[in-house]
Structures are given as structure tokens and as C-alpha cells.
Specification:
The complex is a heterodimer of chains A (486) and B (478).
Chain A: H1 8-16, H2 22-40, E1 43-46, H3 48-63, E2 75-79, H4 106-114, E3 117-122, H5 156-163, E4 169-174, H6 180-186, E5 189-192, E6 212-217, H7 220-230, H8 248-251, E7 260-264, H9 274-289, E8 293-297, H10 305-320, H11 339-350, H12 353-366, H13 372-395, E9 398-402, H14 418-423, H15 429-434, E10 438-445, E11 451-458, H16 463-477
Chain B: E1 3-14, H1 39-42, H2 53-65, E2 69-70, E3 73-74, E4 76-80, E5 90-94, E6 100-107, E7 113-124, E8 128-131, E9 141-144, E10 151-157, H3 164-180, E11 193-203, E12 213-216, H4 221-240, E13 248-253, E14 258-264, E15 274-275, E16 282-283, H5 286-295, H6 300-311, H7 315-321, H8 325-338, H9 341-358, H10 370-381, H11 387-400, H12 404-411, H13 419-432, H14 434-441, H15 448-458, H16 465-476
Parallel strand pairs in B: 12-13
Antiparallel strand pairs in B: 1-10, 1-11, 2-6, 3-16, 4-5, 4-15, 6-7, 7-10, 8-9, 11-12, 13-14
Helix pairs in contact in B: 2-5, 3-4, 6-7, 8-9, 8-10, 10-11, 13-15, 13-16, 15-16
The chains are: A alpha/beta (486), B alpha+beta (478).
The structure holds zinc ion.
Zinc ion is lined by residues 20, 23, 25, 37-38, 40-41, 149 of chain B.
Chain lengths: 486, 478
Amino acid sequence: MDLNSLTIHALSEKLSKKEVSSVEATKAYLERIGAVDDKIKAFLIVTADEALKQAEEADKRRAQNNNITPLTGVPISVKDIFCTKGIRTTCASKILAGFVPPYDSTVVARLKDAGAVILGKNNMDEFAMGSSTENSAFQKTANPWALDRVPGGSSGGSAASVAALECAASVGTDTGGSIRQPAALCGVVGFKPTYGRVSRFGMIAFASSLDQAGPFTRDTIDSAIMLKAMAGFDPRDSTSIDAPVPDYLSEIEKGVAGLKIGIPKEYFIEGMDAEVEASVREALKILEKEGAVLVPVSLPHTEYAVAVYYLVATAEASSNLARFDGVKYGLRVNESGNLLDMYKKTRDSGFGGEVKRRIMLGTYSLSAGYYDAYYKKASEVRTLIKNDFETAFKACDIIATPTTPTPAFRFGEKVADPLTMYLSDIFTISCNLAGIPGVSIPCGFTKENLPIGLQILGRPLDETTVLRAARAYERAAGCTLQAPAL
Amino acid sequence: MKYETVIGLEVHAQLLTESKLFCACSTKFGSGPNTQVCPVCLGLPGVLPVLNGKSVEFAVKMALAVNCSVNAKSVFARKNYFYPDLPKGYQISQYTEPLAERGYLDIDTNGGKRIGITRIHMEEDAGKLLHGEGPEDSGSSFVDLNRAGVPLIEIVSEPDMRSADEAQAYLKSLRDIIVYLEICSGNMEEGSFRCDANVSIRPVGAEKLGTKAELKNMNSFKFVKEAIEYEVERQIDVVESGGKVVQETRLFDSAKGITASMRSKEEAHDYRYFPDPDLLPLVVSDDLIEGQRKTLPELPEAKRTRFIKDYSIPAYDAGVLTASRDLANYYEEVVKATNEPKVSSNWVMGELLRLLKEDARDVRDCAVTPASIAGLIEMIKNGGISGKMAKEVFEAMYKTGKTPQEIVKSTGMAQISNEDELSRIIDDVITRNPDNFARYKAGRVQLFGFFVGETMKATKGQANPQVINKLLKEKLDK
Ligand SMILES: [Zn+2]
């Protein structure tokens, strides 16, 4: 087996047995990136020199038996939304031209502390706004399973890089499904933790009350390893939760016997792809066979989730993106020397179409005279959606649904119609509005060999049970570790 | 027609915390441009605010001092607008749920009046623009973000003031309090204490408020008064000549003494306030509130009243002596040692403040200790030195920091009170002036002063005047 197709835990074992070195593994990944990334275009920047240095350090650490974690020496990549000290960070936007952060995001700092090797930074939808990664200002990332299709988004580069075996794992962000949806479309595991579980410091904000970082991995065990390294209270993020981080691995093999799995009727809808529905129902049967009890639940306000999301997220975004004004860093278009003109021209040429659309939507919903009808009303409905989950979790331990209504779509298919594009997040958005943890794991393929994802949602801070159930399915179904032919 | 003026004030006070409201940068005034900044207050991508707990304590202290009720939960909100001195494109402030509400402050114009305080909220300051002060291009503007993120409280009054004098009295009283609490320097020139005024007029007896103008750019008490007085006249002129006052923001031009329109309501910003999702609601516990209440010092008004009552000094003296906490403490220490409140007040208010003012020095940095002043007063009382000499001694004390005893000793300035010695000197004076002695004896009693003067001259002014008087009377009238 090639080094670059191993899971984190398999590679980690080889590293600790000194069968391979981190430098060798890193070189294998850099070679893989060199070989396939022309086709996939998952990376915006590959930091080969820094990665090899980090690999040498990791090998030293392992040789000296100094503070070794399962990630020590493991090559990963991160979405280009995370600030990386001394390495340009673009958020896939032209407006950040030339911006080199003087600090690491907490996520990157923690992964580096764990000894992970950072290979480079992944493509994404500009400012994480999109569901196909087509909104990147720089390049389109291809789905490794079908090069004429999108990898999903906004963390499409991260998902594709893991699926294409260009890294052992990647880190993305999920505001309305931006980890789980591309994970489903690329056939990898994508985990969105509870809001506040992972620090947002240094992660460029799209919608602050929804954004949450999480890992892309080849299996659920890797997901637990990554999560353990990333999670935990950060004094630099006031919204991060000060709660102990459990040892996810120690619980992960406990199975689902007796676990109650809620099946929300609102998530099996008219018009969803038949193959997707069949695969997900098949997955539920496997979980049942493993001893889980399926219980019907209802999340009655689901139909408002997309509308609520596009009011709340755009409102926050319109404010979060105000700092990109040409004054302090990044792009500045200043032809006339007039301040207002500089603001307008900088933002007009720096932001792409979707970002502008969302800034305008958000500005509108916060405006005097509209605030009550839009932003405020949406915030109120958001509470109802949260309450739906609280009620449902009285009857069940986890909730299982499809991750997406359809498998990966073709480039350009939904670009012309933003509303259809927005609907591809229909099953993932509520989880962010409620702030609960959720995972997407591969649960089969369509006849065209496109991956399908099963979504499992859990109670706030109960990542442990979500991982346990995901692992039980993965073990019973054995449908992970499949790689596309490239 | 007769008009009534209606004024409400919005006061911004910079809190004297060591670090900024949402980052660890220093708040020191006067450092080089952009030397007190970090990714958070520069608004770099991805960074997040973390609230400075000290600033909450300070704000709560002010809220309690002006009788506000502190909300158990308040919410930080974003005020969105574009300006180069605002790095994030929004200011973190509080909007619908402020830190504290419903307070009041009593002012003592026209026999006393209570001014309602609507709310006190916390917010961050913006940076500063420097125009044409750059090294290479005088046509450019530059941004200094040292001030960006410095904690402010905004204190909003009810429209309860009816004259510029009342507004000024309220503002002064508010500043006295905030300086007493040691949470703000109160410096209006440096902009640490800023005031905007909402001014309107209405016919006397009318209940409905008139359309208001918001006055800005008044950086002294004098300007606040001038601006309001001008604005009231202006609005009356507008109404009298058949026009309507428009809602607008007006800037005070201190050189011309007028207010001029800056922007009208139609041009007013829509700040699109919404709760800041980067910050949790601010929860202020009862413990914190009670803890702060315990640290509240005696406030200026209470101290003034107590000084008048306990020390029987005039209201004027009490006002001057309580202008700062340090001065009041100083005075009280002097009184404690002398048990002479009025004499102590005369020295502290007169000589001490005069010299401090000449040097623009604070009582805190004064070389004369309260014990030294008390010693000086004691010396005068027991005749050790004359009042006139005492002033010279005091100046020497002020310059050198030495005790009055040390100075009197080293300069030989001690007063001659010894009757035998003075008796000899007076005899000598009489012998040397037989003509005047004879005239005095013949009834020219006005010559008494001549003999006092001669005796003083003979002792180089060091004679105790009371003893001279006594001895001269004995000798001349014998
Ligand atoms: Zn700072």
C-alpha cells in the first residue's frame, strides 16, 4: 500500500514502529500532489519547504520520544480560511491579495503543537460562500470521483485533497454544511463539532455565530484523532466552550446497541435523489442490525432553515467583511485619491459575485425598517429550530439523515441559479443554526460511482456518541477507504 | 413668544484601564502612531475580541455613582459604518441592552435639580486620522490606531436641562464624579471626556418636544455653554422668522462661536446595529456590583456637604477643597493635626493652591506635607512667627520640602516674643525719637503706629506684633 493512502492511525503506527519516517511520508504526499493536483486543483499553495522542515522536527520528536501524539509527523492540509503565520492566506479572494498573517489560527497552532505536518492550503469558495467551490477567485477544484463534477463546498479543496490521497487529513470550516456536504460528495468523513468546541481565533469569519472548524479524514477513527487535537477552550475566543475534551478514541468502538436513532420525517423529502435515499435507508438498516433502535422524530421548523440561514449568515457576513476596505491590508484600488471611491473600487474588484450578493442581502436584512422583519424574525425562528432539536433529543440519542439531497453535480449546473445552489445545503443547515455536532460519513455510491453521505447529528458537546455511531456503521458496512482512480 | 430650552447630553468618557477594551494593548496617551496596536485592534482577518474585565468594573462603578440600576445581562452590538479610523468597519458598542439604566444626578443650580440619566453603556473608541502630517506626502491622510479599542462609557442623560448653565453644571458634576472614582482623567482637551448636546426649543408650557439639533465638537466647559447658547438663539431666530428647525448634526466652531450644519437626518447613517456574535452577553453578577459598591469613595457632593457641616467652612471653601479627592484628603489631614478648619482652609486654598497653580502641579506631587502646614499654623498660633513671615516660610517649604521648624532655624527668621528683649529695643526707639514721644504724649495718639513701625524696623520685622503692641501701650501711656 502507498504511504499516501494510509489512514492517520495506520501511518502513525508505522511512524512509531520506525517503519517509515515523517520525511518519507511527507515526500510521498508532496509527490502525490505533484502528480494529481493539476487535475484536482485542491491546493492554493503547497508549502513543501516548511512541510519538510516540520517533518524533520516530527521525526526528531519521535526519536527523542518527546511529547508524541498520533498526529506527530502526519502530513495534513488546511483550508485557506485559516490564518497561517508567515504564509499567505487568501480565503480564495482577490481582496486579500498579498496578505500574510503575523499569527497562526488556534486550530493551526494546535495541530502544529500536536506535531502535524502542514503540506499546504486548500481551495474553497471565496470567504466560504458557496456549495461547489466554484466561487473561488482562483481555480475550480474537481471532484476526484468524477473530474467534470464539483467537490461540493465551501471546503471543496479540503474534501478533494483527502479523497485524492493528497494528504492524510484536512481541516475545513462548516457554516451551513461546508464540511459535511463536500465530505459526502467526495466520499470522505467530514465532522462539524458543536459550536464553540473548536476555537474560531484566526479563522477568517463568514458568519460568526455559525462558523465551526472540523476535520476531513478517511475514517471515523482519524476524525476522533483530529478532533481531539483541535478541540478545547481558547481564551482568545469568547464563544469557545470551557468544557473538558473527552478521549473520543476510548469510546469509539462501543457500538450502537440500545442507542436510539431519530429519523426526522422532514429529511426524507419529495424530489430527493432516489439512489441517495436508498443508500441512506440501507445504512439505517445496518445500524438497526447493529442493535440501534430507530425512532421517528419530527423537526417541524425544518422548512424555514434555509431562509433563516440566508438571513442570519448574510447579515453577519455583511458586517464581518466590512474590514476589507483597502485601508490596512490586501487589495487597494485607489485611482482618484478619493476615499469613497477607493472603498467602492476596492470592494468592487476585490469581491466576487456571490460574496457581493451576500453582503447586499445581509446589509438589507439589517437595515432600518427591515431589521425586525428579517434579521430579528430569523433569529427568533432560529430559536425554534434549536428547540426542535432539544425536543427530538428527548426521544433519541442521535439523529440520522442524508447529508445532501443529491450526489455531486456538474460544474456550472447550479451557478446560474443561486437558489438551487442554496438548496444543496438543505439537510446540513439546521445543525449549524442549532449549534449541534454532526458528521457525514460515506454510505455507498450511485450507479455512476458518485459517493453518497450519511449524516449523523448529536446533542450539544456529545461528539462522542456521534463518532461512536458513525464508527459502528463504518465498521459494519466496510465502505470506507475507497479511493478514486486518478 | 417665550421659549423653553430642552437639553440632553451624551457624554463619552475614556476609562483609565491599563489595556484596551478587547485586547491587551496599552491605552497610554501620546505614544508614536500605531505603536500600541495588535492584530485584534487592527481588525486583521480572523481575530476575535475578548472583554477586559477591569473596564466592566469601572463602568459599574460609574453606574452606581449616578444611581443607575446595573442590568444583570447586557449585550454588545456592532455599529456598522465605514471610516478609515474604524479598522473592523464596525464599532463594538451596546445598543438595545446597555450595561446600566435609570439613574440620576443632582445639580445645585437654582436651589438644586435632579437630572435623569437614561443609560450608561460600554463601547470601544475609534482611531484618529492625521491629515497631511505624513513624512512624504502632505496631501495624504494617515491613520493612527493607538486609540482604536480604548474603552469608553457613554452616559446619556434625559432631556432634563433647561439652560446652558444647567447643562454645564451637570457636565461639571459628572466630571467631578468620574474623576473622583479614578476611572477617567476627565481631560476635555485631550478628548478623554467628550460631550455632545441634543438641543431643542419649545414654547413655554408646551409638552411636545421640539425638533433637536445634535451639537458636537465642544472640547471645554466654556465651549459647551457657548455652543448651546448660540444654538438656542439660532433656533429661536429660525422659528420666529417662520422657519422650521431641522433635525441635524451641527459642529461648534469655537473660533467663530457658532454652530454649523454637518449632516441632516436624511444623510444620517443607518448603523445596522445587531448583537455582536463574537461576544457572549455580558453577565454582571450581584457579587461584582456589591463589590464595586463597597469601593465607592465619598462623592464630591456628599463631601462638600460634610465639609460645610463638620468644619463650619463657607460653601465656597468646601467647593474648592473638594475639587479633587487628593486635595480634600490633604485638607482633612491638615485639619486633623491643627483642629483649625478655617485657618487650615485659608492656607490650603490660598497659599498652597496658588503655588501649585503657578507650577501647574498636582497636590499629589507637592513637597509640602499636611503635617508641615499644620506645624506652620501651630507656630503662628503660639507666636513663633508672624503671619507675614509665615508666607515666606511657606514658600521656602514649598521649594525645599523642609519643615517650617527647619526653615525658621536655618534663616534665623524666628519671631522675637521675648518681652525683656523687646522692652530694651522699644526703650531705645523712644530714646531715639524724643520729639515724636513728646507729641504723642501731647495727644497725637496716631503716632502709635510710628512707634510700631520703628520697632519692627529695628527687629528686621521679626518682632511679635502682639507683644510690641502690649509693651508700647505700657510704655507710651505710662
Ligand atoms: Zn490591540
